[in-house]
Write a structure and sequence with these properties.
With 99 residues, the protein is an alpha+beta fold. The chain is built from three helices and two strands. The chain has one domain.
Length: 99
């Protein structure tokens, strides 16, 4: 296995400890061509074997609300939603081109 493949494998290794996990979300940087370049794109993986889709979505919304509240409390600047939408569009185009 090449060094590049090893780096990608290390980035993708994700374990959930405990057998009783109802759900998990993993977020990590997307690989880049040089493996050293910074990226604003991310890979998100999630599973919810112990709950329904609606229950999982509700929990994620509750978590998002809590994190937003903490960010507001700490005077964090709001996200640049337009920038995120552009990144999402790039990811969608890349995924469609790879088909």
């Amino acid at each position: 296995m090449s060094t590049r493949d090893t780096l990608h494998a290390e980035r993708r290794l994700f374990a959930v400890t405990g057998l009783g996990a109802l759900a998990y979300v993993g977020i990590w940087p997307a690989p880049t061509a040089a493996d050293t370049d910074r990226t604003e794109n991310t890979i998100v993986d999630a599973a919810y074997p112990g709950m329904s889709k609606r229950a999982f979505a509700y929990v994620l919304r509750q978590l998002a609300d809590r994190l937003d509240h903490e960010a507001d409390t700490n005077d964090e600047a709001p996200l640049d939603v337009d920038h995120l939408a552009e990144a999402d569009a790039r990811n969608t185009l890349a995924a469609e081109a790879g088909r």
